[in-house]
Amino acid sequence: MAEAPLELARLSVAARAEMSPTALGIARVTVTVSAVDMAPVSAALSPTADGWAGRVSGLAWGFGRTVQAQAFDVMGTLRYEGRAQDVGLIPGGVTAVTVVLHELAAPPVFLNDAPLLDALLASAAEVAPGGSVSLEVQAHDPNPGDALRYQWSAPSGRFADASQARTSWTAPASKGSVMLSLTVTDSVGAAFTTGFTVTVSEGWLPTGWMTEHRLGHTATRLADGRVLVARGLLTGRETPLFNAEIYDPATGTWSMRASSSYCPDHASTTLLADGRVFFTGLGPSAEVYDPVADTWRRTRDMEEGIDLPETTLLSDGKVLVVGGFSSYRPGARLYDPIADTWGPTGVPLQYRAGFSLTPLLDGRVLVAGGTSRGESLATAEVYDPATGTWSATGSLSMGRTSHAAVRLLDGRVLVVGGGETEGASRSAEVYDPASGVWSATGAMLGQHSIVRATMLNSGQVLVAGGREGNRLLATAEVYDPASGTWRMTGAMAEARAGHSLTALPDGRGLVVGGEGVGGKFLESAELYVP
Fold this sequence. Notes:
Elements: E1 9-16, H1 21-24, E2 28-35, E3 38-48, E4 51-59, E5 62-72, E6 78-89, E7 94-100, E8 102-103, E9 116-122, E10 126-127, E11 132-140, E12 148-153, E13 158-159, E14 166-170, E15 176-186, E16 191-200, E17 203-206, E18 218-221, E19 227-230, E20 233-234, E21 239-240, E22 244-248, E23 253-257, E24 268-271, E25 277-280, E26 286-290, E27 295-298, E28 307-313, E29 319-325, E30 329-336, E31 341-344, E32 356-359, E33 365-368, E34 371-372, E35 375-376, E36 380-384, E37 389-393, E38 404-407, E39 413-416, H2 422-426, E40 428-432, E41 437-441, E42 452-455, E43 461-464, E44 467-468, E45 471-472, E46 476-480, E47 485-488, E48 500-503, E49 509-512, E50 525-529
Parallel strand pairs: 1-7, 10-16
Antiparallel strand pairs: 1-4, 2-3, 2-5, 3-4, 5-6, 6-8, 7-9, 9-11, 11-14, 12-15, 13-14, 15-16, 17-50, 18-19, 19-22, 20-21, 22-23, 24-25, 25-26, 26-27, 28-29, 29-30, 30-31, 32-33, 33-36, 34-35, 36-37, 38-39, 39-40, 40-41, 42-43, 43-46, 44-45, 46-47, 48-49, 49-50
């Protein structure tokens, strides 16, 4: 797999002094970022109400960076200078640094002078609700040997230790701007107070990792809100996994579950009405997992296995399995979990693989897109469980395969991504079951040829990861059905494809596993916080 391009870092710099820019006689301020492993990068800062500020982009990420700010008068004479040392830059992020400018020809130090701020470092200027920001203050006292005390404060969120020069702050659950304040006091009470604002907005947080590295696994939200992850391929050997794990959103932890004796390719799962989980894949076999008893039970076999199946639960509690038989013959079967029996039903109009299968509000089921004999399909058909028959419906505007389909709150169906062209990978369409017509909606901001999508509690749809050509994606977008538009969210920590994306009961989204940069299968998981 192609490696992702190098992610560069950005730096948000603010320079401050005790007097106003006019009184100081400063005409311009520059900032230079340097380190032993990178060439110096300089930029000009712009005046603000209380100093100067700006951003430096295109920086090599890493640690041990020195940020030096210099202020010049109208004659170009260097008048003031300040620096922050041991600054860490994270890939793809924005690090915030505040540098205090000191006069080069400083006046004599008087007894009991207040402490001086050298730099204020923050690992991020923006963070998701519940996310963490690492903080560090660099200060000194003009009076030799004078001890300093530190006190952090904020109207919301919490500090790991509010009395340390190095600490961390955890953002509150609510979004908005939060001012973090710091007071540094010497042994006789002289002090200074400073601070900066952190924006709390939607984004991604780390959570517990699975025990196994998994690609192509299944993820099913259980009736109690936990998430069952099963099957998939193990990294390195690319051998099938027979075990399962359950994620608990309340604790952010995983627990291993019983292993199955059956591990088909292209597994598809459906949550049954009684809380058990139905599994099937290539071949005639299927299994049912009971999360309460932590047991797997093999069902009766189908008379003939269905290739590349997709499954969904019908309103009567039966499972519809759709795919095809050998020689490109379309096929469908019904499984009754109470009687543990298989039954026939109507034959789909067309053989297809890589299609989407979406239950509609009226009990019917929509099948859209896919491939047949190497050709990408735009056709769609609807299954009526009352009659067991299939009927053609409106076609997509273009052929799509490995796309994502999500039923919206109003009953319409959103289809995104898929296809072999950039236009298909960015575009989205909405199906109206009442008219049987597809209509274009806003295109995604990025290209997602292999896409994962899920609907959040808000009714909006989250899309995360996938591929843009051969490049793995860490980007994520949210679709608003009311406006038909997309917006970018913060990027995931790891680019991935072949992962799972599951909506949690509390409105968050869980991303699990997949293939990462360099072809490694991932055991990591991340949480989207809206």
